[in-house]
Amino acid sequence: MDKFPEKIKDDLELEELLSRPEQPLIDMMGQLDGDIMFLGIAGKIGPSLAHMAKRACDAAGVKKRILGVSRFRNADEKQLIESFGIETIQGDLLDRGFLESLPKVKNIFFLAGMKFGAEGNQALTWAMNSYLPALVADDFNDSRIVAYSTGCVYPLVPVESGGSTETDKPEPVGEYAQSCLGRERMFEYGSAKYNNPVALIRLNYAVEPRYGVLVDVAQKVYNDQPVSLEMGYFNAIWQGDANNMVLRSLTYAGTPAWIINITGGEIISVKDVALKFGELFGKKVQFTGQEAPTALLSNSSLSSEIFGTPKVSIDTVIKWTAEWMKDEKRLLGKPTHFEVRDGKY
Question: In sequence order, what DSSP letters do the residues of 239-303 get, joined into one string?
Fold first, then answer.
């Protein structure tokens, strides 16, 4: 049985939790053919995702090349990733020559993309989120590809609906979400053209003590700022649980492309979360706006059926996040903009 601490004491312990592989993943790695490459490894999710893959391979007693590709603007992050036993390749994925020079490994995880600042730079947003996937689908046409997408490709739905399912028609709001649907379509096209297996991960939202919707709400409460109720409900999943599910999605990749919602099973109230943080911080919570009858919500029934329910509860992550902030530990400083309802990020 997995053991989780009452409090996460530092970045080292947090990384251990985020990259801890579950036994089904270890078993999968023991049977998986080929090496693994992560395109766009730098950022919030990539380092712990690749680290988990390496740990799972080690636990299974198999040797694979695990490679991570990024521009690596932060030298410390590059060094950290290499310390996990991951080979790094530095370069710009939008550079055709560089992209074509990459080793043609059997298993590809596509994490590159743009959200923050998308509203002010639509051309680059479309290049990263739609044009680059088309290039990758073409260049890695003999690989299994697992590509990150987002629940933002769905429309806002009534809270009582339980969230959008994988068979619901995408109706993305705003150019960021539209470009993400473009990403999916390019990988779907590549899968159909080359008959290579693809899995599309509609994730929302992965959370941990340094980043995510919970951190966004916690910061408002901690700093005595009003919490917006405009987007009154959301889904969330502990990033370690999401990492396990995403890596295991390799074996479900198919043609036509396989689509999976990855998130927690509960619909979470922003107001309830804010009040919990208020109790933990000893703060009076202020609110602004009213809860709308609709929200951006995904139904996780399929992922729960295939991968099981998340091992870490949202209440646990709330407590971890509160302790992390009270200890004034490092945050990533990247708000999710979860409260946005018009798609303008």
Answer: HHHHHHHHHHGGGG-BSSPEEEEES-SSPEEHHHHHHHHHHHHT----EES---SEE--B--HHH
Q: How far apart are CA 225 and CA 286, in angstroms?
A: 7
Residue 263: give the domain boundaries.
11-208+235-267+296-310
Residue 326 domain-assigned?
no
Phi, psi (deg, nearest 5) at residue 201 = -100, 105
> For 156-200, how does the pLDDT look when each residue is reduced to its tens digit (9 = 90+)?
999 999 999 999 999 999 999 999 999 999 999 999 999 999 999
Q: Which two tokens stand for residue 19?
A: 């990259």
334: confidence class by pLDDT, cuts 50, 70, 90: confident
Q: Are 30 and 61 in contact (CB under 8 A)?
A: yes
Question: What is the C-alpha to C-alpha distance for residues 263 and 205, in angstroms, rounded to an integer?
Answer: 6
Number of other residues whose CB lies within 10 A of the CB of residue 110:
25
Note if the pTM is more than 0.90: yes
The pLDDT tens digits of the residues spanning 129-165 come to 999 999 999 999 999 999 999 999 999 999 999 999 9
Cis peptide before 233 (omega within 30 of 0): no
Could you tell me the two tokens for 292? 């709308």
Please report the sign of the dihedral spanned by the C-alpha atoms of residue 233, residue 234, residue 235, residue 237.
Answer: negative
Taking the C-alpha atoms of residue 262 and residue 134, their distance in angstroms, rounded to an integer, is: 23
280-283, long-range: CB within 8 Å, 24+ apart, which pairs?
A: 280/318, 280/319, 280/322, 280/326, 281/218, 281/221, 281/222, 281/322, 281/325, 281/326, 283/221, 283/222, 283/224
Scan for tokens 């270890």, then name that residue: 26
User: How many folded domains does the chain comprise?
Assistant: 1
Give a yes or no: residue 249 inside a domain: yes
